Amino acid sequence: MERTIDLASKAILQIAEREGYPTIWDRFAAQMPQCGFGELGTCCRICLQGPCRVRGAQLGACGATADAIVARNLARAIAAGTAAHSGHAKHLAHTLLRSAQGQAADYPIKDEAKLKAVAARLGIPADGKAADELAREVAQVALADFSEKQTPVAWAATNVTQGRVETFLKHGVMPTGIDSAISEVMHRTTYGCDADPVNLLLGGIKCALADFAGMHMATDLADILFSTPKPVVTQANLGVLKPDAVNIAVHGHNPVLSDVIAQVAHELDEEARAVGAPGGVNLVGICCTGNEVLMRHGIPSATHSVSQELAVLTGALDAIVVEYQCIMPGLATVAECYHTRLITTMPITKIPGATHIEFSEEKARETALKIIRQGIEAFKQRDPKKVNIPPHRSTAVAGFSTEAIVEALSQVNAEDPLKPLIDNIVNGNVQGVCLFAGCNNVRVPQDSSFIAMAKELASKNVLLLATGCGAGAFARHGLLTGDATSEYAGDGLKAVLTAVGQAAGLGGPLPLVLHMGSCVDNTRAADVAVAVANKLGVDLDRLPVVASAPEATTEKAIAIGTWAVAAGLPTHVGVVPPVLGGPAVAKVLTEDVKSLFGGYFIVETDPVMAAEKLVGAIEERRRGLAI
Ligand code: BF8
Ligand code: SF4
Hints:
Shape: globular
Strand order of the largest sheet: 6-5-4-7-8-9
Number of helices: 26
Radius of gyration: 23 Å
Low-confidence stretches: none
Number of strands: 16
Structural class: alpha/beta
Bound molecules: FE(4)-NI(1)-S(5) CLUSTER with Oxygen, iron/sulfur cluster
Helix content: 40-55%
Mean pLDDT: 98
């Protein structure tokens, strides 16, 4: 099977092969054949009598059915994804609180307008309060959202339509605490608890809504602390590494460290020059923390997800600074083959072979400078003979927060910014909207499904949004540009993107795909959908809006997909999740859930077929609205 369709990745993989350096693709091949029970989701290791592996009507030793085992495993995956996203949010809530209490001087409130908007949404009066006071109240409401309480999680209940709130309450899936939703899943899936597959899935959905809340909170608080993104032009792919600069990559998810590194990196340009790097310090991003600094600072993106080791294999990366999530331990192995310093920074993410420099908000700036100096030190050991930077890099226009999209639309209609979008959906110029999210997956030739689906949907006049590593795939392949709009968009979509782009002063069309940020920023796309639904006076489950994770990998992606379904969206997954061993579970997820929430999963590994199915779902929604 082809490993990637990205030319830069192909070039580096050839070097890896020649030198015998192992990557994820080699280790994945060595795993073959993978365990059939695991693939089907019917392996249970929940108690010490296991592992139990069941097929068909067989039962685990305790009597658990295949469907119960599959549903338990799925619910636990959702809980893990929720824990990751909301752990990230909780971290930011603590940072905001410290900022408000004057204990984190490096974290001033950068976006007071966003602070006020978030406070208003939460029902916190802002009148006459200083920013710090308001920030403290917002941080306290955020932290209170984690524990069990009598009322719904504020970030879940205030960021969806009223119709969704009622639906969630009706089906008993409105979370009343983010951490408690996670621990409830762990409780009900432990030995001898919930054995009813449907009840387990509803528990998973409740937890997924806690995931939505945590993600939305992470986005809101990051905007307050680091500013809300605006359109920005940058570059993407391994060609953003520079032979004459100290190249430092930030990798992981939380901007609490990477944003500070982005703020101070150029202060050490002279030190970099002094060790023989005339280009100074060149900061690049990997994965979602890369997206965070790309959206707010225009920091170029080196690569994402499955190809992260390849950044090291260029021989030009001097340091790779990580915090948490999606950081492959394999990075330490490839870093050993070069001079690259792998630097871990968080107490919950240490990797054997890495240098650990613990990060704290109180000493953010100081730690950021110390970390950059590690890269400058490492540069001295760089072997120019081992440097192979592929020439490939693409222009990428990013920074499309909800606010930035509304701002662009307001250039067309200042009084009623959503009207041009809604009018064009109604008149069919824009048939619908697809949010592309999620990872690359070693099972899929890297980027292939994203690119094939996007071209197909764009030609059918579907407006495309993207986040996470999906946005990275589009960036690498030049789809975050107005040129891509001219080349691939259908006539109606092209006319709309051109009109808005011109009005917004871009001198050409908006990009074919609007990059909305990191994975937690999927909630920005949800905000757009909620605003459109409220304006139209219909609920989310009637909008011609769909979601797709064509190359999904992580438990976080499973949690996101699940809340997208609960939010009412037809949601495509391009890799087969481990649920097929539970036929009742598979049927609930792809069919029956529609009658409860309106959304449902579409599992389709062929990208062209997947695009067709999503167009079908959009057409069905359009018929429902009689447009
Ligand atoms: O949170 S898309 S591989 S980096 S999980 Fe991870 Fe998947 Fe990338 Fe961002 Ni999201
Ligand atoms: Fe086996 Fe039941 Fe234990 Fe799972 S919980 S390992 S099915 S005995």
